[in-house]
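Ligand-bound model needed. nicotinamide-adenine-dinucleotide.
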Amino acid sequence: MTGGAGFLGSHIVDALLAQGDDVVVVDDLSTGDRANLDPRADLRIADISDLSALQRELGTHRVDAVVHCAAKTKVVESMAKPELYERVIVGGTRNVLETTRRLGARVVVNISTGGAIYGETPVCADENVPVDPQSNYGRFKAAAEKLVESSDLRAVTLRLANIYGPRQRTDLEGGVIAIFLGCWKRGEPLTMFGDGSYERDYVYIADVVEAVTTALGGTHAGTFNIGTGIATSVKQLLSSLSAILGPPPSIRAAPARPAEVLRACVNPTKAAREGLWHPKTALLEGLRLTAAAEGVLLS
Ligand SMILES: NC(=O)c1ccc[n+]([C@@H]2O[C@H](COP(=O)([O-])OP(=O)(O)OC[C@H]3O[C@@H](n4cnc5c(N)ncnc54)[C@H](O)[C@@H]3O)[C@@H](O)[C@H]2O)c1
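Prediction:
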């Protein structure tokens, strides 16, 4: 498991441990946190873009399967630091694939992005829509997908919509739900970029984890969208949060951010049709679960 100390990765680790798997995590702790990680997971601190460090840490360990989750994930930062993003996302994926083969794994589940890879999606994109990434982050994730596709392993690429749920970082960029909940908790103003009409497809973390564990255990191969097929604007999100938590502290307007698409939404029909996955948690329910877990909503 790469990136297992991060938001998504640590939830995947929890699910794998719960089903009785032994889990080795490779993470450089650059955005992940040791505190996220169940101590039963075997943490090896290494940068995936450094092949010799990966080989040193993993040695001759045998593994059955690899979940590749580690990445730099910030759209705006990727525009300022393209070399870093290419090295970690493209170079790192190449190294992870080479290491996966060397360690004898038969399957790799590659965590990709639907939100940043399709570009503008006036209609929620299915997997046949040509990719049109608007940021370096999306561009390099698309290049990493190609590497995974051309490997000789059983490979499943999951193009995830915007994930939300407990443990998501409230600082840095991204994770608007976590950021808003953090503001609510601290009584600080919420920042609204642009006019709040940006739409995203928000998928609950537990649903995403189920897609990963099913992909690991099954026989599927190829690329699947993992999202709800429902686009929600920031304004709608605020009104759903307000319905659960009461009115927000206050709202501060800020200019629209570069490399933002207006509407990012994925169509998850293929995953359902092929018996891999379907979304289960409605947004209001997921928001309630997240707010309760983060101590914003006292249940
Ligand atoms: N959060 C979302 O909404 C979302 C949406 C679509 C796709 N994704 C994808 O999900 C994956 C996990 O994202 P997340 O939101 O949990 O972010 P995160 O930052 O919490 O997790 C990324 C993890 O990778 C580790 N990492 C980063 N660079 C590394 C390197 N060079 N070597 C080793 N470890 C490294 C970090 O320390 C961290 O633990 C990423 O691949 C991301 O592209 C996330």
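The first strand starts at residue 24 and ends at 27.
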